[in-house]
Amino acid sequence: xxxxxxxxxxxxxxxxxxxxxxxxxxxxxxxxxxxxxxxxxxxxxxxxxxxxxxxxxxxxxxxxxxxxxxxxxxxxxxxxxxxxxxxxxxxxxxxxxxxxxxxxxxxxxxxxxxxxxxxxxxxxxxxxxxxxxxxxxxxxxxxxxxxxxxxxxxxxxxxxxxxxxxxxxxxxxxxxxxxxxxxxxxxxxxxxxxxxxxxxxxxxxxxxxxxxxxxxxxxxxxxxxxxxxxxxxxxxxxxxxxxxxxxxxxxxxxxxxxxxxxxxxxxxxxxxxxxxxxxxxxxxxxxxxxxxxxxxxxxxxxxxxxxxxxxxxxxxxxxxxxxxxxxxxxxxxxxxxxxxxxxxxxxxxxxxxxxxxxxxxxxxxxxxxxxxxxxxxxxxxxxxxxxxxxxxxxxxxxxxxxxxx
Length: 405
Hints:
Blueprint: H1 5-8, H2 29-35, E1 38-40, E2 45-53, E3 74-81, E4 83-92, H3 93-98, H4 109-129, E5 138-139, E6 143-146, E7 148-150, E8 167-171, E9 180-188, E10 192-195, E11 200-203, E12 208-211, H5 227-230, E13 251-253, H6 261-275, E14 281-284, H7 286-298, E15 305-307, E16 313-319, E17 322-328, E18 336-340, E19 345-349, E20 354-355, E21 364-365, E22 371-384, E23 391-394
Parallel strand pairs: 1-19, 13-23, 14-17
Antiparallel strand pairs: 2-3, 4-22, 5-12, 6-11, 7-10, 8-9, 8-12, 9-10, 14-18, 15-16, 16-17, 18-23, 19-22, 20-22, 21-22
């Protein structure tokens, strides 16, 4: 009887190729624009002095008239506390030995976990950049005694931010894990997602989905201050209240409907009237980008592109006497466009992406276990030194695609 491949299988080795074929989306367009625009800070927070009021002691008078009453410039103190992001890995000793060469594995254990942790933390930071600063990813709908969590309005939440394997809490902003704590997502659909463990009793529109341990109200904020908070027409930001200093507010308009050059032009004019500078970046969802591109096609116009940081490019939008780049990011809220001046948007950071090595080694022995661990961290915060340099449009009709990868 001839020796067949099936019979010889037990004696044959598998020759694994030396690299892993990436299946995850490691594309972070907006993060690439902000990473290159950072300012170092030492101590527990950054403090900036803002010019918020003019001297009112000016004006024309008749000959011999009484001079204007002396006034003064007004200033406010912007206080920016830092936020702390981490990624942790642990590798068992036998795995390190078994994966010493490419012949024995798809990739070496340590380099795979180290590089993967960096990409995963960047992925989460990119999500936070577009967030509401309290960790909310999505709003729940009505769920009753089930592991299938219904979302309130899947067409306006970031389904792409919910991934199989992600560990989440469900609860209120004040108490983020009251409904469910540390549950793993096992499936994502166009209406919601499924979690492991015991069935949850109920959810309603007052409940939200958070990454495990990252949710919390303003006084307990853990995540970065996102664009939905920074680019807003109201609300105290970094210790400055726009009700006291009206210039400390962004242009904001809702219920936009159909997108067009005129819509962008109105917003840009309003931003330039209030803040003075010209916006240079328009960030939106993929659906809004498609809807805008369709208007160019219908007018038989060709869309020019502008090169951006990080090797990205965006559509060139000429509106309001300015030329700015329109780019889409999967983490941008649906039906929303942020009109930004990146000269006034940056990171305060105490560290870059760094591994804890104050004891002289990145990998540390896990006490009592044949394993090693390492922790990646970044201490930083997204901020602006001129809130009225930015604007936000919401309620935009978009080309909706509820594809779930």
